[in-house]
Amino acid sequence: MLVNAKGILEAARDGGYGIASPNIYNEDTMRAAIEVAEELRAPMVLDIWPKANKNVYDLGTICRYYASQASVPIAVQQDHGEKFEDSIKAIRAGYTSIMVDRSSLPFEENCAQVKELVRIAHICGVSVEAEIGHVGEGSTYELDRNASLTDPEEAQRFVEITGVDSLAVAIGTAHGEYVGTPYLDFDLLKKLRETVSVPLVLHGGSGTGDENLARATSEGITKVNIASDLFSAGAKAWNEVGTVYSSAGSLLVQKGYKEKLAHFVRLFRQNNRA
Known about the structure:
Elements: H1 5-15, E1 19-24, H2 27-39, E2 44-48, H3 56-69, E3 74-81, H4 84-92, E4 97-100, H5 107-123, E5 127-132, H6 141-144, H7 152-162, E6 166-169, H8 186-195, E7 200-202, H9 210-218, E8 221-226, H10 228-241, H11 247-267
Parallel strand pairs: 1-2, 1-8, 2-3, 3-4, 4-5, 5-6, 6-7, 7-8
């Protein structure tokens, strides 16, 4: 069933489990993600990054159709919409949730831009995730890990001003592959969970390690975005056979992607929740 992310995340927060949110970039990965959701009876949020697939309308339409036919709750979310036009295109294309990323802007400007998109999105029944603090890149992890960790009081003020439905926070993860050893600040996570009134989201789940992620989803993180680990698992399954990219190669990519996603679903205790 097609839903927005708000209900999925609030149920997970209240139930004390996490939501693995896979990044998808085409129909193959979308099918793989929904198959995992149905096989494991797991509600799921599908993330689509506009820079990975610029066909916002085409992929959104396909995702909406398959999500609406699924027997478990599925949300279709635009990930890291960096421009006003990105978010509006996603809403018009029927995405049920959007992630508005203005985390590189000064606090007041971040608030103002997110607040306006929340107003528009909520009129359309679309839920909104935003980010305070800044999750950087794994390639520069050792240099900038501590530069933009989320301040708990600022985070709650951001939620009150903007009206967002969920909040991505920076507690020590990074996007992409790490150069260095991931270190999550669980004391900071505890303060954020006690202070912030909406579900918390962790970006940069790939490469962070099962122990860190399992602990994070037990201690306050509700949604974990995962991309690189899933894509790598799909590519590995394909490369091990050495086939050309054909229908057979496509199935191998789906198989590797599915197995890795199923691992995270079980790790976060997300299975058998729908």
